[in-house]
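User: I'm writing a tutorial on reading structure tokens. Could you give me a worked example: one chain, its sequence, then its tokens, then a sentence or two explaining what the tokens reveal?
Assistant: Sure. Here is the example chain.
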Amino acid sequence: MSTVNTIEYQDEIAELLADFTANVSDTVDVNIREAAKRALSDSIAVGLGALDHPASHIARKFVTPFSTQHGSVIWGTGMRAHPDLAGFVNGSLLRCYDYNDFYVGDRNSGHPSDMVAGLISVAEWVQASGEELLVSLAVGYEMVGAIFDGYSTAPGGWDYTNLTGIGAVAAVGRILGLDAGQAREAFGINATQHFASDEVESCELNSRGDLTLWKRFNGTDAVRNAITSCFLAKAGVEAPVRPFTGKNGFNQKLANDHDPLPILSERLDKSKKLSRVAETYMKLWPVGSMAQSAIRAALEARSKVNDTNRIREVRVFSEEGAYEHFIEMRQDPYHSLSRETADHSMPYIVGTAVLDGYIGIDSFDLSRVLDEERQKFVANQVKVTPDLSLGAKADGKLSRASRGYLSRVEIELNDGTIVHGEAKPFPGHPKAPFTNEEIAQKVTQNAMPFASPAVTEQIIEALGTFEAVTNVRDFTEILSFDWASTNTN
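And here are its predicted structure tokens:
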């Protein structure tokens, strides 16, 4: 005679995440809807700007054998694929140029927009409305904010994508209409199936002299796993019994020395309105987050210089974390040898902003990086110094980020005149959020090299009124243009 184990195990974290995902209100304030539209539009802009990146070519090559007529659109092509693969390929675009948004929580930071392309692909697959997508996106960002407050990936040497994957489960689970029971299984599957190492951020260069291309894929790979988790749970697959709190569960693997449950319980109060999508940081320039303030200051100082030949020295004073990230962690920050070493070099970034009067994707073209005169200017005339009065690591990352990862710039001319660029929050910071015009400008700058003016205008118009889109397929159809035939690069 068989017996049934009647012991009921409980995983309070899995149940909390699931209850919030399924039951938080879909009524959002106007400012949160607009913030979700900014996050969506910013991600589309960044993705379209990377259609000719080497990682993009590889991603399309990877997905070609799996294309299907009735799938979700591979942006910039007529190809379609199942939503997990379409989201994976489109999501890789968002990490090609260090240009997408980022979020800083109490204990962790990363890129919540990793989830956007995957969410769009799933919304297209189920023919969701624009409003449903925006609400699901806000739910995903709310989850990421809570998870970044509740967990640190540093003690175990794990990558931030282990946390954004949880946010992606919330967003995708919401668009699929998972109930709390199904969502609980989706979170459980996701929390135990796939752990990403932080070795991707080792800063060690490969044989090409670049950072690994996997950095362009690790975020979207986590989202692909989240999508699979949600579809599996919807089909009826059960997760481990205690995926977060079990003896080998998520909490144990992250090796944090605190209990995340009280933090998550406070952050994920389903009676409160969604808000955290409005707290994400966006980038006007395609470089790491901690260099944005330095670019702003460099361009301000540069605007006061009529002739760059008169420059004797450029001095950059950066908060401690930015100095560490763009100087101390780099093998030779004053002598860049590739796109990816240049866009992670504070001397090159600021030197190029001063020389050219702007920073764009083409600022890191190899011909420009290796230009002999530019190399001399960066190596001999740009000096970077840490300034703890602008922010010290002891202050904590959240404090430094909320101030704007501040840097200031001085340009000294040959006659001894010194002009200044002040330390201020950068455009796209929550204290200086993008306007609708700035978002439209970013979409235009990134789409126009690959899409016709008419298609670019269609994209901007649809994004501006996305809540009125009745079927996301109508929007993604616009993205099925042939980028190669209109490429003006």
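What the tokens reveal: Strands lie at 72-73, 80-81, 103-104, 109-110, 311-318, 382-386, 407-413, 418-421. The mean pLDDT is 94.
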